[in-house]
Fold:
Amino acid sequence: MEAKIAPSMLSSDFSNLASEAHYMLQCGADWLHMDIMDGYVTMLFFAFTIPSCFCSMNDMMHFVPNLTIGAPVIQSLRKHTTAYLDCHLMVTNPLDYVEPFGKAGASGFTFHIEASKDNWKEIIRRVKAAGMRPGVSLKPGTSVDEVYPLIEDEEPVQIVLVMTVEPGFGGQKFMPEMMDKVRTLRKKYPSLDIEVDGGLGPSTIELAASSGANCIVAGSSIFGAKEPAEVISIFRKSVEG
Ligand code: DX5
Ligand code: ZN
Structure:
């Protein structure tokens, strides 16, 4: 299958985002992976300081314990590149982000199934209407069956992102046990884009690729390498053979 290698810009120097993006493309990247996280440190703060009568539980809930970037950063980066911006939304209310990300110039909009159980149809519909490619992601604890309806719908997602670490931070250890999900998806949907994210590097790519993943996200192993182009080429060879 065709490989899509997507460096995670979370590991880049955010103060030089445009030049880091150009460098990755020069090194052979296909996509740029943008991690959007809504941060739950504030939730704990509010939970203990504001009486619940002033603030609904939903307002206080966030998806991951880290806060990264939003649509304005995508919009700024878009002015410097035509590359495919693969946006991974680790947020509790993905629907609220569809329009801003569409306007900002995002290419792919991948939301989490855990955050969209009641409204994924509406999200997919709006993502497509905004000119983006819809995708769904699942956390390590979520069963793969939960995404089947989104792949089999008449307006399906076009990519499934299997998290191979707990979402929130770069630089964590790859979870090989997630490969069962990748194998199951690949067997059931031979031409689906299956993306893996978290802990991918030269020592874990073989397992991911042979399990059936073709879209590879990697932050620390690419940005931490002396020669990022070599790491990208190892990934591509593992996927494409
Ligand atoms: C984690 C993010 C990943 C992360 C990957 O929540 O979704 O994209 O940046 O980083 P590495 O490759 O360092 O595990
Ligand atoms: Zn990601």
User: Anything to note?
Assistant: The beta strands are 4-7, 31-37, 84-90, 108-112, 133-138, 159-163, 193-197, 215-218. Residues 4-38+69-240 form a domain with the TIM Barrel fold (CATH 3.20.20.70). The chain has one domain: 4-38+69-240. The chain has a mean pLDDT of 94.
